[in-house]
Every structure is written in C-alpha cells, then in structure tokens.
Amino acid sequence: MAEHIVKFDIAPKAVRVPTGTLLAEAAHQAGVTIQQPCGGQGRCGRCVVLVQSGTVRRRSTLRLSSADVESGYALACQTVVEGDVSVVVPPQEKIERRLTTDRTAAEIEPPAGYNPDHLQTIRRVALTLPTPTLDDQTDDWSRFQKTLRLERGHPEVKASLRQLRQLGQTLRDGDWRVTAILDTETGDESARLIAVHPGHIPDHAPVWGVAIDIGTTTVTLYLVDLFTGRVQTQVAEYNGQIARGEDVISRIIYSGKNGGGIEMRDLVLGTINELVSEACQRTQIQADEIVKATIAGNSTMIHLLLGIPALSIRLSPFVTAINQIPTLPAQEVGLNIHPDAVVDCLPGVASYVGSDISAGVLSSGLDNTDKISLFIDVGTNGEIVFGNNEWLVACACSAGPAFEGSGVVDGMRATKGAIEEVWINQATYEPTYRVIGGGKPRGICGSGLIALLAEMFLTGVIDKSGNVNLTLSTTRVRTGDHGPEYVIAWANETALGRDIVISHVDIDNLLRAKAAIYAGYTVLAESVGIPLEAVEQFLVGGSFGKYINVEKAVEIGLLPDLPWENFHFLGNTAARGAYLALLDREARARIQDIAARMTYIELSADNLFYEAFTSALFLPHTDLSRFPTVQTAINV
Amino acid sequence: MAEHIVKFDIAPKAVRVPTGTLLAEAAHQAGVTIQQPCGGQGRCGRCVVLVQSGTVRRRSTLRLSSADVESGYALACQTVVEGDVSVVVPPQEKIERRLTTDRTAAEIEPPAGYNPDHLQTIRRVALTLPTPTLDDQTDDWSRFQKTLRLERGHPEVKASLRQLRQLGQTLRDGDWRVTAILDTETGDESARLIAVHPGHIPDHAPVWGVAIDIGTTTVTLYLVDLFTGRVQTQVAEYNGQIARGEDVISRIIYSGKNGGGIEMRDLVLGTINELVSEACQRTQIQADEIVKATIAGNSTMIHLLLGIPALSIRLSPFVTAINQIPTLPAQEVGLNIHPDAVVDCLPGVASYVGSDISAGVLSSGLDNTDKISLFIDVGTNGEIVFGNNEWLVACACSAGPAFEGSGVVDGMRATKGAIEEVWINQATYEPTYRVIGGGKPRGICGSGLIALLAEMFLTGVIDKSGNVNLTLSTTRVRTGDHGPEYVIAWANETALGRDIVISHVDIDNLLRAKAAIYAGYTVLAESVGIPLEAVEQFLVGGSFGKYINVEKAVEIGLLPDLPWENFHFLGNTAARGAYLALLDREARARIQDIAARMTYIELSADNLFYEAFTSALFLPHTDLSRFPTVQTAINV
Predict the structure, then answer these.
(1) Chain B window 365-424: which residues touch A at a Cβ cutoff of 8 Å?
(2) How far apart are CA B562 and CA B536, in angstroms?
(3) Which domains, from first to last, does chain A contain?
C-alpha cells in the first residue's frame, strides 16, 4: 500500500502513513492533539483542520459549508489521506468561533442570474424635466409625472403628502434634474413614489433594503443592496419583548393588559430600529437610504409589531385579526428607515403558522419540488409543513420552549456558556460536553438537551419512559430537589458554582415537546394519507435547527428515522425567505401562493393528535418499528 | 279704469286705487311710510312687503328669492295692484335681517332626483359575518372582505392600519354583525374602508360629510347628510390666516419664512376645525361621524392647508406645486373629523385659478350650457372664465382686495356696520346709505364702494377719470389728508366718531381693481375671437357677488353692459361646487373635466392686458360705445 507524507504546521516533523489513514490518526502519530469530543463520529466539528495541499478524501463534511470545503477545511476524524498532504491545525479558539458563529449570513448569495430590472420592485430613475416657463405653467407634480411617463412609461404614480411637500424644492435644487426612487409592487402600470433626490445619482450607487425576521426570541436583519442582491451586513439581537414573556402566549396576555399592546409594539420596534442603526453604522449609510423592508414573523409577532390586537390568537377558535397585511409606509409602522419606504409584512396562514413559515417554505424550496417533503421550523414553537409543488398541509405544535431552554431548570438559549453537545461514556456514565464559546458552562441549550436525552437513553441512564435509573453505580444519578436527576457538570466545573443537572421533571417537559412535534408529523401524514417513510427530504429551518445533531434527534424521536442524506439544515429560513421576497417579485408572489394554498390543520381540534402525542411520549416512540436505526443502536 | 281696495295691516283703514297703482303709492295714500332709499328703483330691497291676498304684478323681483315670491313677498316700488289686496308691512328690523342674512344656504337643495346609490361614493353596508369556528379559522380581515364581496360585490377593499387594529374588537362587539362605511371613489371595483361600527345601523340614520370652501377671507362649511343631500347646517368664519396677511401674496411670503408654512397651515386648520366643531354642536353629532370632505379653494389656500410650499405661485413663471391633489385621509390633512375620512381637495387649474373656480364653474353650469357665458368670482382676487360646453378659457386678474374693502381708507368687509348701498342726490349731493345690521356706519364694503363710485360718477361728484370735482357747491367735497375727497357720513353719524370719506387715492385703487377685471374680460374675449356683446349669460359667483348692484357695477364698468336678465348671481359657487362634488361622483368628474379642459391665460405675460387695463381705467371705460346704457344714463 502506498505511503504518504503528512505535515502538520504545529508539529516539529512530518509523519509517513499509508493511504486511507485518517488525518486524526496521522496527527496522533505526529504528536498533535486534536479535540474529538464526539469520539470521532464526525458530528461535533471540533477536529476541523485546513488541508493546504495534497489529496484527501472527506467521508463526511457535516458542520462544514461547501465554501469551507472549497477552502480546504476537513474533519480530521472523517478525512483520509490519499497523497502527500500539508495540514494547518487552527487554534482552538478559532474553531470555537467558527462553530458558534452563525454561518448563514456568509452563505446568503443572491439568486443565480438575479436580474433586478425584471425582479426588483424598486426602480431608480434619473429624470430631466422641461423647465417651466410662462408658456408652460404645468404644476410641478404633473410635470414630474409627465416626464416619468414619457421617459419610463409609468402611467400612474402615487405619492404621499410628504413627497408632494418636498417635490418642488427638490426639482429646483436639482435644476429640474432629479433621481426618483419608485416602488412598482403592483407592476409597471402604477408606481408609488418613495423619494426624489436632486441631480442624477450614478447607476452604481446602491439602493438599500432590509429583510427582517422577527423571531419570538431573536430578531434578525439583513441589509441588502437591492440592485445587486448582495447582503451587506447581517445583524441580530434578542427580541426586546422577551422581558415581557418568553413565548407568544405570555406576550399575547401581556399585550392585552392596559397599555401592554403599545409597550409590546415599542419593544420590538426598539429592537428593530437598533438593528437598523447598527447595520447603517457598519455600512456607513443613513437610515433613510433604506427604501424597502420585508418582514417575516409568526402571526403574534406581526400583530404585536403593527399594534393589532392579538388576543384572538390564543382563544378558541384561534383566529388572527389579519394574515395578509397590505404594504405600509415605514413611518406608519414605526420603522426608522425612509418614512415612505415600503414595508411588506409577508402573508401568514393562521394563528400559529405565520409568515416565518410561508417565507421559510419558499426559502426551503418545498413548494417547488416534486419530492414529498417535510419542513420544520423549530423555534419557540414548532411548525411543520408537509407537501411538495402540488399540495401543502401545515400544523403548529404547541411544543413549548423546552428546546429553547425554557421549562428546563438548567436550560438556556444557545449563547456563550451553553452546553451544546454532550456524550456519555457507556461504561462509566461520565459525560463529556462542549460549551459554546468555551469556558465553564452556565446551562444547557436545545442541541445539548437533545444530545443529553439521547445519550442518557442509549446508555441506560434513563429508560424509554424517561425514568432515571437510580440503581446505576455512579454518583451522577441521584435524587435531587426535583426528584431523580443526572448531573452533567459538578459545581466546581460550572460558571454557576452549583451542579448542572437534568431532572425527571425536565425530561418530562422535553419528552412532551418532542412528542408534540412528532405527533404533528403523524397527523399531517395521516391527513394526506402518505406515510412518514415516504418523505423524500426533510428540511429543517430555524436557528435552532442549525446546530441540531440529526443522529441524536432521531434517537430521541424528535426527527423521524430517515436516511441522513434526506435531512437538510437550512438555517434561518424565515430571514432568507424575507430576503428573497425583498429582491424578487416572483419570490414574493410565491410566498403569497404558498400562504394561499397551504391547508392549516388545527391540532387542538384533533383527537388523532392526542393519540399520536401519547404514543410519542416514549424514547424514541411506543412503536419502535418506526425507528429501525435506533432499534439497531439499542440492540448493539 | 277699475279700482281696487288695498289694505295695509298697520294702517287704520284701507285705500281705493286704480289698477296699475304701485303698492308704494297706495301705502303713501294710506299713510304708511315705506323706506325707499334707492328712490324706488327696485334695487335696495328695503320696501319689501308681504302680499297676503289679492292680485298684484311684480315688475321686478330683484333681491327676492323665488321662495320669497312664492311666499307673497313683493317690492312695494316695483309691484302694481291688479285686484283687491291685503298687505303686511314687516317691521324694519325684520327686513334688515332678511337683507343681511346670507340666503344662499337656505337655497341649497340637493340636485333634483338625487340618487345616492348611484352617485354617492360613500356606502353604508350592514354585514353579517359567519362566526369563526375551529373548522373555519379565516382571519378577521379576510372574513370581513369575503362577506363584503359575497353580499355587496366589492372585489377589493383597502383599509388603514388604524381600521385593521380596530376591526377584531368591533366584529366581536357586534357579535359578527357590523355596519361598514366604505368609500367607492374609484368605482365599485374597489373600496376603501373608512369605519366599522358594531351592530346594524338603521338605514334612516344619516352619514355625514362636509363641503368646505377655503376663501382667502372667509371659510365656509356645509354639514351635509350624504344620503339625502340635505344641508343640515352652514357655518362660516374668517380665515384665521388673515392675521398674517389679507391677500394670497402676503400669505405666501409669510409662509416662506421660518416656521411660517406650519403656522399658516395651523391657522387655517384651526378655522376649519372650529367650524366642524360648531356644525357638530348645532347638529348634536360627533365629529368622527363625518366621513367625507370636499374642499375648494384657490391654489394658495390649498397649498397652505396641505403644508405644500406655495412660493413658486408668486414667482414667475407662476407654477403651483400641484393642481390635482390625491384624496387623503383626514388625519393626514389634520381635519378633526373621522381620521380615515376621505378628504378630496378638488382640482385646480393654475396658480391663480384654483379649485374654487373649477368647482364654481361646475356650480354655475357654465360647462354644461350651449350659451356663451362669462363666469366671474370676485373675491379677494377676480377670476374670470369664458366659455360654454365646448370650450373654456380662464384668467385671473390681480384686482387686489379693493372691493373687499382693503386699500380703501374707510373700506371694510361686508359685516355689521358696513355701508352696503349708497345713493347721492343729484341736486344736493347729499348721500343716503344703508348700513348692514342697521346702526351707525363704521366703513364701506364692496357693494357700497361700487354704488358710491357709480353715484359719484353719475351725479358729477367725480369725472370719468375719477377726479373729485371740488368746485361743487357742497361741503361734502373737500381736500383732506389724502387729497380731494367726498364725505359719505359726518363724524356724528358714524360709529367711528370721525367722517367716513372716499379719497382720490381710494378711487384710484378702485378704478385699478375694476379696470383689471374688465381687462380680463377683454383679453379672454379677444383670445377666442368672440366679442363681449355676444355673451349670453353672465354668471357672478363669490360671496361678494351676492349683494352686487348690477346697474351700479355696469355704471362703473366693473360688469359689461349686458341686459339685466343676462346676469345671474349665484352666491358662493365654490362652496356649492364642493357640495355637489361631495354628493355626486358625476359632478366630481365634471370638475376634473373642467380643470383639465380649461385653458389658462396668464395675463402678466400679455401686452394686450396692459392696453385693455389702461383703457378701462376710466368710468365706465375709454370707449363709451361699449356701455350704451351708461351713455344713455349720463345723457339723461
């Protein structure tokens, strides 16, 4: 067998290994320590290295983007040597940063062949008006309209009173040469005037828009050059409403109190306007250069943003005040961008299937594929869409925020200090864990909880009902304040100065959450008479989905047992859908179409749901035949 | 000759007079004093009596409405006995009131056969929505739209964010039975939601609108039941902007100063909102029951109302910022009526031919007649329209406010204390005058100035150039502070405690004003090649026009020398035009059409104008052949 020379940048000398040797093994031989908390399963991404030259073969690229692979990154535990190679081992903190930084933004690229002339509703037109004379006393506004009609063929232009007030001065400041920004949302037949600038602005100057995803937990904003489609910057911040409730239900209740609706509106506007300000500062532009905004969010978020009472959303029969919001000027909404900017709150479907889902479905491509697909957005709620280019059914599972760390004593959001992955030694029951940002843990986030649940189940720390096995010969299992519990980190290892544990109550909450989601799949599948096994692709959206470990999620029965390659993790599909709608009138029309043809199935009205829920309260499920790979794993 | 018995209610016994005897003469015989300040010419209206029974023939009914005549009123100096008659002589103060009260309002009647279903853009529809259930989770707004579409066939309905915020609660308050107020301005294809009320409102309950005329001097408002067309109340008040300038030019200048535009806007809004409040109080309704407003006004007034800079109006080439204002929600305009009420500022033509004129032309019917017609609105400016149903030309004469009492030392507006009519005794040069509201005079208003000028000219107090003849044997002519002058009232007769006079300077100003207007007719007539003598009807609009004395106005050359019956005094044509547009979408379309097809002739660019102006600076005109009846009067 051929041998190859492998050189690691931080090792004093190269090693010689046969073809097919794992880079991890070669590193070991060279005396280089590469972290492998997942035990070399290619799942944690901690063993990433940079192959500078030479031939390798990647068995798996999980946690690597295609850009990473192109740049030469490889997982040491999943990559074999096939020639002489030179490898750089990045410093640990750089890996940490890479793993914990949201890579979605960098990956957002304008749609292939993006043609703003055809797809963008915003137009920028340079106009030269004939100068008024005593023989031509046409009023300013008619003069402007006429020039626009003659030069650009927009037969009808509408303007706000604000624009009409400013027009005369602008025309004279520009000596009758001006540049107009128009919105042609309804087609070139009619246009809405957003702004007029004196003089002719060069074609290469950008015109800005923002795509906003209002999550219950996090608000994300992309600042986008509307004509190139480039995402100039991406910013995100916790939704300021968190202070008044973690989930939509508590926020609806709060908003119904005296003055609560106004406060909720102000809080989320505060968050958005801060993000606008930050994005502008980064890009060195003025906020009033932003002339268009698309907004995705669940129905409660959109109602609260617009100051529309949301109370009916939480009371049977669970109806929204409005799903199809007309476009509104920014000033009316309260966004600190150009006051006449077009704000397009994307259309939602139902009380618990909002525009985050319709935009997410667009972004996922589910509505455009022949393949039978499942789409799930696991955020503070779990919304599921089943379908393809011919039909769409959707439901929302009141999963609760357990997987966002709420309802679990040591649960927390996926931020610095959160345990995001856990492995338990089958023999000793001792855990290994990875903390976001490194350092001492403060709690466990969603992906950590999934991994923990799976590992506890597979190692027998808990049984299929979630009961902790107190008979194990380890101090990690014990009876605590909340009943039986498992200790993930001892007090001296944590940033809290106390043990981080998962109790039987926490486990119950997690089981209920995952059971609700699995029951959702089941009901949707039964509603259309297509078994889950027939699902050809499983599309996972939502920021939570980005770091989910498929194997573990299948092991606990949160995801159905499908081949790994059928799972696609899409990041923030709602934000990306809003971005596409911002750029592309056809994408916007598709969201409309998605919202219109999606059949919403109300689970609370469905006895089938309760049955499915009850059956799914086990690990991974009462009916183990639904999880053949888990069955195999247990038997091993 | 037959004799008849005439009985006056205030005379002890009846008199016997032959057929054809004037009632005034019969009264004299019966010992009844009837005031005849105009000398029995049938012009002052002071000798009005009520014929309770019997046959009379009215030679003239000037200053009587058709309703008056129907009620039996007659001018004693113009009415002859043709049978036994019984006459009531009204107390003098009752006559004063009748003469000085604006009778226009009472005369405004809905257009014959007014059919709101066809003509009114506002619709009130009672809707019963299906109650939402778990099987029908349609959102409130879609549910509302769908019901509206099914029941009324409005395919597209738009709503403000304000309406969307309120809808859900209103639907539930009304237990899914609501009454919607819609505007269908653009036809039944699309509608704009103005308001939704819980429950079903009975059909007979009125829906209110306001028609507003913003005059430079006076703002007039009619509160109108939109479905019956009835004018419920009419209110008027001085335009609050007067404090910042009497004419449009001074207001434009003021508005261009720092903060001046905002102040001007607030001032006129203050006036309008006060009028709204007064009209509502009188009618015992709430301001937000008013759901539609139409507004007429000259272009400066409309610009200032909307906060649109008006500076370009007064600078060559005299263009407005906008003539065709889109409809706006009341809140954006600042009107204190329903915030989503439709505010329709009617379309104007040019800087000095505003929507008061396009609405006035509609009201006058000029655009609809075969007859060659002249229309004039003498307000603070004098705008003239020449034309018929086939063509329309218009101009504005910078007449200045002399006929509104400004630019004349003892000039004043037509309010209490103003001398509104003057007669001068040919032999003694002693004047007789009538004061609005009775009592001592404070000054002279427009109609008084016209009468005064005519009387001075006819009696030789002034010559045809306006020079005072100081050689007359009367103390009434003298040289005062401003040069030669004529004393109309001695100090002890006046409320001022000083003499009320007209000086040579005042006379010059009046001559310039009337010459500007006459030059306007001339230029318009020449522009279309039709002589003034061919004018078949002369339509006089504007509140000033209401009390104008045709004979006097012809004598000074302010009106052309046409047969009396060709003159029609129409009162506030701008307000009436706004009223018609408020009721009737076809009338509104006609105003649009009038504005579009009216050719504006800019006098300041016209040498012909200066010639015509110079020729008209004489009484009545350099070319006396243009005024044959005046020529006759002088020769008599």
Answers:
(1) none
(2) 9
(3) 3-101 (3.10.20.30), 116-198 (3.10.20.880), 208-345 (3.30.420.480), 358-401+511-635 (no CATH), 402-510 (no CATH)
Are A340 and A327 in contact by the 8 Å Cβ rule? The answer is no
Phi, psi of A372 (to 5 degrees): -70, 120
Q: Which of A137, A167, A196, A308 to mutate to test the interface with B (most CBs of B within 10 A)?
A: A137
* Cα separations in angstroms, A464 against A424, A510, A615, B584: 17, 13, 12, 76
Nearest CA in chain A to B169: A309
**Closest Cα to residue B79, out of B163, B136, B4?**
B4
Cα–Cα dist B53/B9, whole Å: 12
Token pair, residue A160, equals: 């706000």
What would the two tokens of residue B567 be? 């003159």
The pTM of this model reads 0.83
A450-470 residue pLDDT tens: 999 999 999 999 999 999 999
Of B142, B143, B319, the CB nearest to A138: B319
Neighbour-count burial for A15-40, b at 16+ CB within 10 Å, e otherwise: bebeeebbbbbbbeebebebebbbeb
How far is residue B111's CA from residue B590's CA, in Å, rounded to a whole number? 15
CA distance B317 to B315: 6
Distance separating alpha carbons of residues B569 and B543, to the nearest angstrom: 10
For residue A180, what are its two tokens? 């107009």
Joined together, the tokens standing for residue A511 give 């089981």
Mapped onto helix, strand or coil, the DSSP state of residue A441 is coil
Q: Output the CA–CA distances (angstroms, integers) from residue B289 to A115, A540, B226, in the order listed.
A: 49, 52, 11
Using the 8-state DSSP alphabet, how is residue B21 labeled? -
Does A312 contact B140 at a Cβ distance shorter than 8 Å?
yes
Q: How many residues does chain B have?
A: 636
pLDDT at residue B103 greater than cutoff 50: no
**What number of C-beta contacts closer than 8 Å exist between A and B?**
132
Q: Which of B631, B384, B387 is nearest to B519 (CA)?
A: B384
Whether ipTM > 0.90 holds is no
